[in-house]
Amino acid sequence: MNDHIRRYVETDGAEGHEWRPGVHTLLLTTKGRKSGEPRRTALIYRRHGDAVVVVASSGGAPKHPAWYLNLETNSEAEVQVGPEKYQVRARTAEGEERAELWKSLNEVWPDYANYQTKTDREIPVVVLDRV
């Protein structure tokens, strides 16, 4: 477990939720598509109504990140936002919704636009709806 995730878990989000000034992260726990084991990832997010939204950028790598592939296999997951933990169902935003959310997330982390220039894949925008 990396230091950021460890601090987030140990402090119940008091450390790590605000990763950089104005940039907040959540912890996403998916079920490994091959192992079936829990896999935890820290991701920048933005709230969108009752949902939280994340980007499967992997820094512009040619392949989707493992956590996204896990969600394609099993859309049920858990998030921790600060001290709050709850279950979510993931879906990939498309069309106008994706365009709106992509713009909103780029306001939080402008490097997403740069990451998109590094890959031929359309970087997924993932909506995590509370269940």
UniProtKB/TrEMBL annotation:
Q: Which domain of life is it from?
A: Bacteria
Q: What NCBIfam families does the record point to? A: hi_GC_TIGR00026
InterPro entries under this entry? F420H2_quin_Rdtase, Split_barrel_FMN-bd
GO cellular component: a single term = plasma membrane
Q: Which family does it belong to?
A: Belongs to the F420H(2)-dependent quinone reductase family.
- Report the GO molecular function annotations: coenzyme F420 binding; oxidoreductase activity
Pfam families under this entry?
A: F420H2_quin_red
Q: Which reaction does it catalyse?
A: oxidized coenzyme F420-(gamma-L-Glu)(n) + a quinol + H(+) = reduced coenzyme F420-(gamma-L-Glu)(n) + a quinone
Name by which UniProt lists this protein? Deazaflavin-dependent oxidoreductase (Nitroreductase family)
